[in-house]
Design a protein that fits this description.
- By secondary structure, this protein is α/β, with parallel strands linked by helices.
- About 40% of the residues lie in helices and about 25% in strands.
- The strands form 4 sheets. A 6-stranded mixed β-sheet has the order 2-1-3-8-7-6, with helices on both faces.
- β7 and β8 form a beta hairpin.
- The longest helix is centred in the C-terminal third of the chain and has 20 residues.
- The radius of gyration is 28 Å and the shape is elongated.
- The two termini are about 45 Å apart.
């Protein structure tokens, strides 16, 4: 059985939503590569009773407890005194840590104040973990066959300590198994429908494999996890199962690696030597933004118009005035003209257009909030589809762009 780890993140700023906890996400990925299973992540405030309770609970279930935050020199940094209290020891000056701290401040031309000297204080019996990128060294303590590792909350400092000191020691210490993941990314299918299509295949997976459904906006990532001692055999086993799975949901799969939908669409466009342009109304340029997040997207993405008003739709995209007044901007006829005409404006192989009621206002009885029309046009095929998404404006914008990307992908696939 592989070692089990728990991650404890300490900091009021995380609980308040002022700081995003990227540390536990990164740590989990690194431990996964070693075959160490993260069984729980906990975020707690800068309060002694919460910290001590979290330590006690984690020790009952984990072999390794990784703690980030609370190692600074100020009064609200409680991790070191709490570790000392939990282990029943005093705090003392670690002379090696103090020497390193003094040299760092001298090199930097800073004054080493008494408060800063306090960062070299550690619980008696703790092993110092050198922090080459900051002033707060990490702490390594052990009791009852459980390792406590405390690190700074600053992400680049934590990563430096993990990569140089912690991960090599954990790898050498634990005889770990292996965890191997295979990914299938799908679009244009609901999680429940996907589960129905895969029900029989999933039920017959070998006992050392497990399938996870990881839904996001208009997409579902499938993660097949194989656990065992022989990594090469795990890779063979997982590949065998993936090959059985793919034919069941072929048309919905856009990647067999962990890449974004916009990246996959870009790959297809580049492979086929095709170009694309966008005419956006309700999405306000969000689809174009997704295209241009990919490096080198200028190879295939030529440009876009955010034609938000009727006037711009007419002047820039040559949408027929009568169509706009009779059918409205949120209509099949209008988005088809937008898609066809944006192709002409930018001389691209493909044109995509979007127009809808993002909300919260602008709805009519026959066009409620969330009504979105998306059109696709190329040399051989032009069509539009109507969707009813959500009541939330931001969600409608994001969903519209992702669904549009998937429409492009489907039309580029063989």
């Amino acid at each position: 059985m592989s070692a089990k780890a728990e991650i404890i993140t300490i900091g009021d700023e995380i609980l308040y939503g002022q700081t995003l906890d990227t540390n536990s996400h990164w740590i989990s990925g690194e431990l996964d590569q070693l075959g160490i299973k993260v069984i729980r992540k906990t975020t707690i405030p800068d309060l002694e009773n919460h910290i001590l309770a979290a330590f006690a609970e984690a020790e009952t279930r984990a072999d390794i407890i990784l703690i980030t935050g609370g190692l600074g020199p100020t009064n609200d940094d409680l991790t070191k005194p709490c570790l000392a209290k939990y282990f029943g020891v005093e705090l003392e000056m670690n002379e090696e840590a103090l020497t390193e701290l003094t040299e760092l401040y001298a090199r930097s031309g800073w004054e080493l104040s008494e408060l800063n000297r306090g960062q070299a204080i550690q619980p008696v019996g703790a092993a110092k973990i050198t922090n080459e990128l900051g002033t707060a060294p990490g702490i390594w303590l052990e009791q009852n066959d459980t390792i406590f590792i405390s690190m700074p909350g600053v992400p680049f400092e934590m990563k430096g300590i993990m990569e140089k000191e912690v991960l090599p020691k954990l790898k050498a210490r634990f005889v770990t198994g292996n965890i191997h993941h295979r990914i299938l990314k799908t679009g244009g299918i609901a999680e429940s429908t996907l589960a129905e299509k895969l029900e029989s295949w999933e039920a017959n997976l070998p006992s050392h494999m497990k399938l996870a459904y990881l839904p996001s906006l208009a997409q579902v990532k499938l993660r097949l996890t194989a656990i065992g001692e022989d990594l090469k055999q795990l890779e063979i086993d997982a590949d065998e199962q993936i090959q059985k799975c793919i034919p069941l949901i072929q048309k919905y799969i856009y990647a067999t690696e962990n890449i974004s939908l916009e990246e996959r669409v870009g790959q297809l466009l580049r492979e086929q030597g095709k170009t694309i342009s966008c005419a956006e109304s309700c999405t306000g340029g969000y689809l174009s933004h997704l295209f241009t997040t990919i490096p080198g997207s200028s190879d295939y993405f030529q440009g876009s118009y955010v034609a938000y008003s009727y006037e711009i739709k007419e002047k820039a995209l040559k949408v027929d005035h009568k169509l706009l007044t009779e059918k409205g901007a949120v209509s099949e006829e209008v988005v088809i003209q937008m898609a066809r005409n944006i192709r002409k404006v930018f001389n691209t192989d493909i044109g995509v257009s979007l127009s809808g009621i993002a909300g919260p206002g602008g709805a009519t009885p026959d066009k409620p909030v969330g009504t979105i029309w998306i059109a696709y046009s190329d040399a051989n095929n032009t069509f539009a589809k109507k969707f009813i998404f959500a009541k939330d404006r931001k969600l409608n914008i994001q969903l519209s762009a992702i669904v549009a990307l998937n429409i492009v992908r489907r039309n580029l696939m063989p």
